[in-house]
Design brief:
With 218 residues, the chain is an alpha+beta fold. The chain has two domains: 1-30; 32-216, Glutaredoxin (3-Layer(aba) Sandwich). 59% of the residues lie in helices and 11% in strands. It has helices at 2-28, 62-77, 94-108, 112-124, 133-142, 147-155, 157-172, 194-216; strands at residues 37-38, 51-57, 82-88, 180-183, 187-190. Strands 1-5-4-2-3 form a five-stranded mixed β-sheet, sandwiched between helices. Helix 2 links the parallel strand 2 (51-57) and strand 3 (82-88). The protein is globular and about 55 Å long.
Length: 218
Amino acid sequence: MKKRLVALALMLLALLVSTVLVQAQEVSQFEEELHYFSIIPEQPGGEGDRVQVVEFFWYACPHCYQLEPHLNKWLEKKPDNVDYVSIPAMFNRPNVIMHAKTFYALKLMGLAEQLHDKIFSAIHTDNMKLNTQEEMESFLASQDVDIEAYRKAMKSFAVQTQARRAAVLAERFDIRGVPAIVVDGKYRTGGLEGNLMMQVTDYLIDRAREEKGAKSQQ
């Protein structure tokens, strides 16, 4: 009986050690300069104890399209103190800029949430180019969008301002490719498989939260 108890105790100890080792590996499995990068200098993040998460995307980017289901799943369970913002890429190419302004125009019209995934699907599933204003208008018309209202929104001061701000933020965060995720103005991740990218994002959120807590106690 005593031998069985000793054997059981040893098994439990081995299981505990194994669990601790796995947890330690999970905590340290993400390496700077490999899975994420520090933003220098740091930029403003969330206010108080809130953590800001900013995603940069481009509708024609296949990797952005592949990230979408992972991102949407993450959004369903994101922490309450995390503020998520989606920002379109503003690389100096006509189709990229047109896509970015379309995102903001549809947002201004209250249609971004309804059409965001549909634009992704049209390009990557239905093989529609949507590289020109005419092609985008044709697609939006097929989705019952008021094209005159869309054209006015594209030229509006609000959309022009948001597009300029997107370009400024991309420069501040040193965004050179998409998809990219910036956590609290301090860390940037990108170029990873979708599920891994969201795991790294969660890791960086926890890190930013701990840093905020430590700073508040100083």
